[in-house]
Amino acid sequence: MKTALAVLSGILLGLAFPKFGVSLVAFVALLPLLLALHVPGHPRGEAVSPRAAFRLGFITGASFFLILLYWIPLLPRENVTIPYVMYPVLLVMAAYLALFPALAAAGSVWLARRGVPLGLAFPPLWTLLEVLRGSGTFGFPWGSLGYSLAAYPHIIQFAEYTGVWGVTLWVAGVNGLVHLYLDTPWVKPKTAVLAVLLVVVLSPFLHGRAALSHRQPRPGVRVGIIQPNVGNDKWTIAARDSLVDAVLEQTAELAGETAARPPDLIAWPETAVPARLSRDALYRHRVEALVDSIGIPVLVGYPDGIALPGGKFRFANSAALVFPREGLTQQYDKRHLVPFSEYFPLPFLNRFDFGQSDFTPGKQSGIMSGAEAPFGVLICFESIFPGLARGLCAEGARFLVNITNDQWFGNSAAPIQHFDMNILRCIENRTGMVRVANTGISGVIDPYGVVTMRTPTFVKLQTVGTVELSESPTFYTRYGDWIVVALLGWMLVLGAWALLHGERR
User: Fold this and answer.
1) Most CB within 10 Å of its CB: which of 46, 156, 169, 208?
2) Which position among 334, 382, 393, 426 bears the catalytic label?
3) 380 has catalytic annotation
4) Residue 392: HSE in the Cβ half-sphere, 13 Å Cα cutoff
5) Residue 334 is a catalytic residue
6) Average pLDDT over the chain, rounded to whole?
7) Is 426 a catalytic residue?
């Protein structure tokens, strides 16, 4: 029975994310796991052992991540050099990521067996373990609980104060308070818990309504979006010229279509030019000649590389701003690379060809200036890390540009999951964002997380969107993940309480 409840929690968590997207189920998704850890009404000392809790949390996590990341073994064959290896990759990823829910379950049960209500211990531990999961070299915040509500920006406006981790805490906290209500035996305390639960549930709704009611149109920048919809064959030498010709032609067409009111900036997706633009005189001349002819700055994505002593090369996933009559003036090298895809953190496996690149992370900020307003560049999955976007906004970026190539996801839920995380970046920093993807989803998100434009996937198109500018730094932009420090303090208090009272049997 307990195992079935743990599996049910994993399934409900999976349903809360695209393509299922039954987002509001997240508010009860963790409840079956909590019921498996401790039956309400029973003495807290009768909660399952920490070892059993670890196993149940692992089952929940594995079930969830197998559903969330189902698309990994279904990636298009042209993008995977060893297709059959993707099934064990999914299993390994699910097993690794499931360790974090397992630790949250084990830690909260350890506290519960010493008198701390499970409903008060579990939500902060779950949140802190999600923060840890999204940190460091192997950081992967994909599927963090707060992102499940990206489709409902009107109820997560408080993220401008707490960031996405505050949203995660809210959702986990509602689950915990429901369990606490069921576990409270007496009428008066039960009524108090119910009152707190109602306040916790309703406050973000009321705050969101107030925030959106005061929303005023802001000054904006018109950005041209080029979605070329090209396949993985762009890396072959034979196809390179024709693909570059195609994106140049698209850009010229967009400039012609908007001649009466040209955009302030045109953006191409990640690696739109499959050549070392800053080092390749031919392709650089062609791009700069186009920019000179249309008179509009263009943000270009491309892989860069420089020769090092000893016959070695340093490669980077780069973006550069090309100005009319000035040429390539500013370059940004991606700082947070995708492990096992853009570089291999385990050097002994480099002898195997999994289709991985050999990029080196950049060192400089992605702030670019000169196109009406300074903006910050996020390449590919850099946008899923709140600290990177916050850093750019704190440094003066007035809007964000996310360029990406999601073609390798195929026709799965992954492009939707990837796009949705950008909604939180906009709310956190109250800034607009334009997203430019090779095969989609491209679009524009306003400072309140409202998607004002969204393109279909696997369609070639060019369009223009207005990106609203930020006005002043938010509380989150100024102070960052303060909520993590607060949660650590709360856990220290609970830990001290547990140690003083000892295990109850």
Assistant:
1) 156
2) 334
3) yes
4) 35
5) yes
6) 90
7) no
